[in-house]
Amino acid sequence: MTDRALMEAAQKARENSYSPYSRFRVGAALLTKSGKVYTGCNIENAAFSATVCAERTAIFKAVSEGERAFEALAIVGGKEGETAAFCAPCGVCRQVIAEFCPKDFKILLGTPENFGAYTCDALLPFSFGGKDL
Ligand code: THU
Q: What CATH number does the domain containing 98 carry?
C-alpha cells in the first residue's frame, strides 16, 4: 500500500469521528507488516478525560486483534469542515506509538495531498520505554 493510500484511509476514518465537544475531527490508519490496515477516530466523552484519540483507537484495535508488527501510521485531522495542514499526535499518543512501533516506523502527517514522514524518535526523543524498566 502506498503512503498516499494510507493517508486517504486516515481521512476516511475521520468521517466517523465522534467529537461533539471540541469539533476537532481526527482519523488515523495503521499499516501492519502483513499489509492489513486498522483505522481509528477520536471518540469524545462528556466526561472529557474519557476521550480517546484517533491514533490510540487504531493502535488498540490492532493490538487487541493480536497484531504487533507495524509499518506506518497516517494521521489526518482538523476542525470540523476543514483539514489541517498538519495534525500532530498528542503526547499520550506519542508514548503509545513508542511502545509498539519499531525504530524504522513511519508516521505520516499532513493531508493526503501534502504530507511528510517522521520517525518515532523525532516525535518523542529521550523516550521512556521498556528498556528503562
Ligand atoms: N485528538 C486526537 O484524536 N489525536 C491527537 O493526537 C490530538 C487530539 C483529538 C482528541 C480530542 O477529541 C480532539 O482531538 C481535541 O483535542
A: 3.40.140.10
